[in-house]
Amino acid sequence: MSFDCRSFEDVMEAFLDGTLTGRNAREVREHLLTCADCHELAEIAGAPVEAMPDLTAQVLARTSGSSCDHARNGLCEYIDGLADAVDAELIRMHVAGCEACATLSNVLAELATDLPALAEMNPGERFTAEVLARTVPRGGQTPRWVEQLVQGWNRLIRRPRFALEGAYVMTLLMLVVLGVPGALLAGAPGRVAHAATHEIAEPVQKTVVELKATVSERAKQALDSTGAKVADEARTTADGLGAYSSRMFENLKTRMGTFWSRVASGLANDEENESSADDDDQDGDE
Amino acid sequence: MRRFQSRVYSVAYHYMRDADEARDVAQDIFVRVYQRLDGYDGSSAFIAWLLRVSRNVCIDRLRRRAARPPASDLVLDGGVELAGGGPSPEDAAANSDRKALLYRALHAMSEKNREIILLKEIQGLKIEEISQMLDLPIGTVKSRSSRARIELATRVRALAPSYGA
Prior knowledge:
Chain A is built from 12 helices and no strands. By secondary structure, chain A is mainly alpha-helical. The longest helix of chain A is centred in the C-terminal third of the chain and has 98 residues, at 188-285. Chain B is 65% helix and 0% strand. Chain B contains 8 helices and no strands. Chain B has helices spanning 5-16, 19-35, 46-67, 89-92, 97-107, 111-122, 127-134, 138-159. Chain B starts with a helix and ends in a 6-residue tail after the last helix.
């Protein structure tokens, strides 16, 4: 607890009697160097107190340097006007001689006026309508217990461990319903497996075998029928090709014969023309 | 609701630091208030009760967000989070550089100190109301408030050396 004017008044009598010693006496002397009122009171009472030649220097000697922290502890109350008179005077004097604390004091004073301006922000024109849409009951007048159930469920599923807890609960539920002897559904998996084997798998297997035989027979018939048709078509095509090729051969043969006969007749005419020309030359010579 | 929606939205924004999420949380706050209005016994100021509900809703949302961080929860330089589609309050307050400066300084502060500044200096709650809301001794609230103001002043000064000159 700091030593203030009230503390001085409590020990003033002992201080005047000279019976105050040690730390208490030192605190009184230091207080009298910083508090003009108490200093004056002590002087009137005749106490041997030191003069206060330069109070500012004395205060700075106590509060400058590392004492800035001490001054800053009370700076906010000083700015707000809530500091008691002694502290306020100490801080005022310290601030007057300390540039860093003076700047801080100015910033704090401006913040005190600027910060309340951040108290309100416009959330947008549609904000009120959106909130009303969430709070006004919709046409159907949903019962309150339904709303509570939905809200509870929404809260539940938003929990981070919901998936893990859900799996745990479902496992327990399955164990209780299926795994405990005498339970309502005990043996249900076996019954289900038996039913699946005898009432589903076997009829399906029988049907599949019958279907397989039928399909095989039909496929064989279709294949035979298709083979015969293909053979007939092939024979017809081969016959057609044979007749066509015979006609083509005869036609070619006829044309070749005609060609050769023309070539032969042409050669014979040329020989006759050459022989008649030789005879004419011999007649001319003669 | 119209009377208090700006203050509630401001509180939500200071906690959530995202304009869209703050709007969503502010709606949640009013829905909660609507559902629990019977819980207000009139022993304290309505604004203090409203801010207490607001704080609880915001902290619930922050806890859920911490448990399931959204993929879009990016953080830009200076700790200012990327806002969604709508204009952020910083943008809306672009005409006021001082407001933008204060938002930046506030967002750079520690959670505890920022909360004290929000409740006491911005929303104007009394020390006793904050003490009750945060379940802290009055002396602790006072000392924390003093430290928070000094921290804010230091940060503001670092961001804008001309502030307070």
